[in-house]
Amino acid sequence: MDGQAPYILFERVEVKYSDVVAGLRSVSLRVDKGEFIFLCGQTGSGKSTLLKCLTKEVPYSKGRVVLSGRDLHTVERAEIPLLRREMGVVPQDFGLLSSKTVWENVAYAMRAIGKTRREIRRAVPDILDRVNILHRADALPNQLSGGEQQRVAIGRALINNPPLLLADEPTGNLDPSHSIEIVQLLADLNARGATVIVATHDMPVVERMNKRVVQMEFGRIVGAEDEFA
Amino acid sequence: MLDRIEFLLLEAFTSLRRNTWMTFSAVTTSAMALLLLGGLGLGYMRIMQFAATLPSKLEMRVMMQMDLPQEEVMQFGEKIRAIPEVAKVELLPRDQAWEEMRAAYPDVTEGMENVLPDAYKVTMRDVGKADLVAAKVEAMPGQDGVEYMRTEYNLIDQAVKLIRLIGALLGGMMLLTSGVLIYNAIRLAILARSREIKIMQLVGASRSTIWTPLLIEGVVQGALGGAIAATVLWPAFESVQSMAASLAFLQEARSPFPVTMAYTSLIAVGSVYGLLCSVIAVRDPRTAK
What we know:
The complex is a heterodimer of chains A (about 230) and B (about 290). Chain A has about 230 residues and is of the alpha/beta class.
C-alpha cells in the first residue's frame, strides 16, 4: 500500500437486492495495479456481488467504486460496454457455446465486439496459445475436460487484452488437479501484468497459491486480509 | 462495416432458424392479419373509386309540381342548395327537357303537349347521406317526387360501413394476435440466445450489436407476413372481381390488381409492425440488460 493511487477502490459500498436482502454492507477495499487477490467466503457472502459492481451488472446504493481513477457512478449506461472491454470476465459455468468449436467460441466473442475476420484470424491462435489450448482449437466444448473448457473461457476473457481479470468461482466445477492448473494459469497472466481478482471458496487452492486473501461473510469483509501471506 | 452487418444478419437468421415453429406461427398470423387488413383496405378503396366514377348515380332528381309558378320553382332550388349534404343543384327546365325528349323519341312525342314538369338534378357530397337528403327534400312543399338509385346507394353505403367495421374489429384483433406472437417469438429468441447475449455483454459488445439481430428478426417476420399477404390477396382480388363482374352495375369498376402498391404497402406495414413488436419485447424489463 504505497502512496500511489489505487487501481480499484471500494469505499463503504452497499448493495441492496431488496429491503431485507443486502449484497454488500459497507465494503471498503483497495486493490493496486498488478495485484492478485482471492475473494473468499461462503456462497452468498458477497464475492460475486463485489465483482458485479466492477462490471456494473449490479448497481450499488451507497459508497463509491473507483476503477483506474474513474468513479463508476459516472459511467453512463451507454459506456458500460466500453468499461467491460477494460476487463476480462471468467464466469463459473464457462459460458461456452456448445455448437461452436474452441476457435469459434473465441472468434464469436471477437466478432461481437466488432473485430474484423482478418483481426480474428491473426489474434485467436495467439490467445489460445496463451491459455495452452491451441492444440484443441477444433474441438467442441463437450469434447473437452472441465479444465480445458475453463481455459477457453479464460482465453475468451483475454480478447480485449484487458489489464484486469475477474474470475467468479473459476474452479467451482473442476477437480483439484484442474483447479490448481487454472489458478496457476491466472497467476501466469498476473505475472505478465494483469491485475487478477478471483472469487472462490476453494480454500485448498487459495492456501497453495500464497496470494492476498480477502475474506467475506454476509456481505462484509472480515478478518485479516493477508491471513495466508 | 461489412463484417459487422454480416455478423448481425447471421445472428438474426440463426435465431429465426432456431425458432422455426415460433417463427412460422408469427409469420402466418401476421400474414393473415395483413391479408385481412389489405383485402378490406383494397375493397374499401375500390368501392370508393367505384362510387366516384359514377357521378350520375350519385345524383337525385326532384320533380316539381306541374302547376307550380316559376318563382316558387326557383325558391325551391335555393332551399335544396341550403341543405348541407348537397354539393350541387342544377335546374332542368321542363321546356328544355321536353325538347330533348322529342329529339330522342320523335314518334312517341309527336302531337303531344309537354307532359314533363320542371326538375332539379341534385348531386350529394356523401353517398351515405342520400336517404337523409331525399327525406329533407320530400318534406318540402312544391315537389312531386324524388327519384334516385336508393338500392345502389344503400348497398354502397352498407358495404363501406361493413368493411370499416370488419376492418376495425377483425383486423385489429388479428393484428393484436400477430403482435403478441411476434413479441413471444422475440422473447423466446432472447431466452434461446441467453448464453450468447450473456457472452456478448461480458466481453463488452455494444447494445446495438446485442439487440439489433432481434429487431431484424421482428422485421423479417413482419415483412414475410406482408409478402405472403400480398401474394394471397392477388388471386383473391381477381376472383372477387370476376364474381363482381356478373353484377351489371359493377361492370364499369373492373380494374387490375395494384401489384406494386399491394406488395410495397403490405411489406412496409408488416416490417414496421414487426419492428415495433420486437422493440417492445427487447425493452421488456425482464430482458437482462
